[in-house]
Design goal:
It holds the Pfam family zf-RING_2. The protein is mostly helical and 131 residues long. It has four helices and three strands; from the N terminus they run ααβββαα. The radius of gyration is 30 Å and the shape is rod-shaped.
Length: 131
């Protein structure tokens, strides 16, 4: 009789122990994953451009684009007569409205993620000179 009880009890106890170990491992990994997400080592510091900075970006038409006519924001083609913006530095082009919408939220190229520094209008030496 004792051997029958042990034959039924030991496998059940072993399976229960394995199941509890499995649940503990899942709990540990989930908690570790949440900790990694909440305590990111690299905080997002990218901010959008101001309205004055957006006005300084080169305004072109679709036919003037150098690196293709696909807008990476709306995934549509930029027609020759469409108003477009060319990002300084990387020369990627986008629809004007799409670029403004994106760049107001994030100050980086939607395609290559390069940080955008709008070209500042330089004063001539006679206007800049204090003499």
């Amino acid at each position: 009789m004792l051997s029958v009880i042990l034959a039924l009890f030991l496998p059940c106890a072993g399976m229960t122990a394995l199941f509890l170990i499995y649940l503990f491992i899942l709990w540990y990994l989930a908690r570790r994953h949440i900790d990694l997400l909440t305590h990111s080592a690299k905080p997002q510091l990218v901010t959008g451009l101001s309205q004055s900075d957006l006005k300084k970006l080169p305004a072109v038409t679709g036919k003037d684009l150098v690196l293709g006519t696909d807008c990476a924001v709306c995934l549509d083609d930029i027609c020759d007569e469409d108003a477009a913006t060319m990002v300084p530095g990387c020369n990627h082009g986008f629809h004007r409205e799409c670029a403004e919408m994106w760049l107001m939220r994030r100050g980086e190229c939607p395609l290559c993620r390069a940080t955008i520094c709008p070209p500042h209008h330089l004063l001539t030496s006679s206007e800049n000179s204090p003499l």
